Amino acid sequence: MKDPASQNSYLFAEFQLDPLRRVLLKGGQPVALNPKAVELLLALVERRAEVLSKDDLLSAVWPDQIVEENNLTVHVSALRKALGEKKGAHRFIVTIPGRGYRFVADVKQADLSDALVVEHHSVTQITVEDEDGAPETVKTRLVSEKAASRGMPPPGRAAVEPRAVRAPAFTMKTRAARAGAAMTIALILVVGAFVAHRHPGEKKGAAQFGRFDIKRQTNTGKVLAAVVSPDGEYVAFAQTEAEGQSLWLRHVPTGGGTRIVEPKPVEYWGLAFTPDGHYIYATTFEKSQADPVLSKIPVLGGATERLPVVTNAGVSFSPDGRRMAYVVSSSSSGGSILWTANADGSDKKFVALRKDPNFFAMQANTVAWSPDGAIIACAVMNNASDGLHMSIVGYGAQDGRDKHLTAGHWNIIDGVAWASRDGGLMLTGNTNPGLASQVWFISAGDGHARRVTNDLNNYRGISMASNGGSLVTVQTNTTSSIWTAQVSAGGKAYNFRQDFSEVGEIPAIGWNANGELVYLSVASGAPELWMLGAGRERAKQLTIDARVSDFALSPDGRYIVVVSNRAGRPNLWRMDADGGLKQLTSGDGEVHPRFASDGQFVFFQKGFGDVLSSVWKVSIEGGDPQPLTRPHQTYPDVSPDGRRIVYSHMDTSATNVGQWRLGVADVTDGKQLESFALPASVTNRLTRWTPDGRGLIFISTIGGISNLWLQPADGGGARQVTDFPSQQIEAFDLSRDGRGLAIVRSHKVSDAVLLSNAR
Description:
The chain is mainly beta.
């Protein structure tokens, strides 16, 4: 591809493609596109006289990387949608059957020598919080932005002079004038100076998995966890079926498969082959069981044995197979513990303790015993002075001495395996919230990271054959859609319609007082807030580089409270309609905010992960947060009259130990007023009050299909609100008048993939 700095913009139809800034404009406004989609469009436009094959485009957009062809298909589809193409009427990108793609629209290049030059000058007020929390206001002048175009207004974005930036978190209030038009004040929340950057540990590393073949091992789209046998001959995987979750074995060379455990109402959290390949150890959560169960399952048939071991994740075996390592949450110890034990669960020995709020990760396979038997690598959460982040720490199998094995900070690490060729590590994870989790290689010694996969899919969990030549992971592709419906007086939803869809996850949605839908999207490659108008027309972006993971809308529309890690850990921040920004909490982690009915307080969950969480509240003006409930209580919501809160909690009574329930408590003192049992099908704890305060709505997922249910607040049996025949519900919200329902549904295709023939 040409040097973008030497190019002028490309003009076609109503669009302008700027190769220097890597942005597509329509009517002078940026079009939301993944960076790789922009690269793809540039390749097509620059070589518009040619028919570009799939290999041509893959080489141009993903140089020196091995990616699946479906990534190209997804990006072409996203481009066609962004360009407004309709099925059967391709004005811009035409598919040439059997050959590839060609860009067919008329293209002109802007001549910068005689183009209209417009300069924007504006004064920005930057509020910088000192270490003691006192705000200091500094005025600075934005750098002029010269936008060259022919008859197209400039995008109106400007860069802040570096000398004006004195802290990592600040707010920008910008007044900009457009020639001949007055700017309408809108809810555009611009959070600056969080510029995307490469992971500090990422650099070109060893040849481990520099190039490889990737092959799908399953095609059901419902795989939850997968591992490869030590000899690389078999893949074991758990998947969702109508009757529950089952365990399968697939022979890699022939493709033959067999179900070795019938579907049951359990959740598979971890799988591991024994080093001799004769058994699979499975960690499962079962209905009415307070603790997970570790089972030893013969690969070729036979009786399953339950072992006297409690672990919240998978296990990893020593090279000789005599002992296993695992982690478990321990409230009595105030943290989480790494143990080893014999393969039958006997002779348990302590290795290491991590005190809250630091803890061992509890994902499927985040513990890995090294091939030489000396080190046990563990994914851990660190609550450090510079924020909350994950890393991999190696512990001496005999003495428990620790050593950091990764460089830099990670947002998520949910799979760890040893790359036995040179002592390096493989992991699945990401470096920033909202980014897709990928497969990475960690070089031995310096801990530097090199990305192995680089696409829109998410990869979760990792398992390697003993020769280091192949690995298995679960690849997930997600498409999300926003649906709206009306709600009857009896609480039944009807008149459903799909308003919006995109590739990627939409983790949260809210319905504001004006009938607009605010939602959290990661389609652009980073988590940002967007808004759909009352007419559900074109989506409008509200934040830039905000690092948002959840949000709540104030009843009067004045504020949005977001969960953001811009200060290094998830805290609550208040965003004003004019762009003002204020930090409300500064603890070790505050999530799931919800406004009180009067808008004066925000209720939230304090603590997450392996830390016992509880419900707190904080004034919308800030100040010291106040505790309301005891642990372990999550996902709060406030009743419309402001007198009660609902939350999910685990029953600790002797009769129902381990069962999740909905609790209703008094807002003033946190005293529990009611408690309702939740079915085992409720795994997403999100709960909302109905606007009349008479019911509680929650998500129930059976066989991978989600629907909403309503629990009457005065008791009685729950009843179904929606009747979807497919897909999962990720989030939902009710309009303030109680007549409207907004639902985020996702279609996830998760399959086991084998990466092999590494070179």
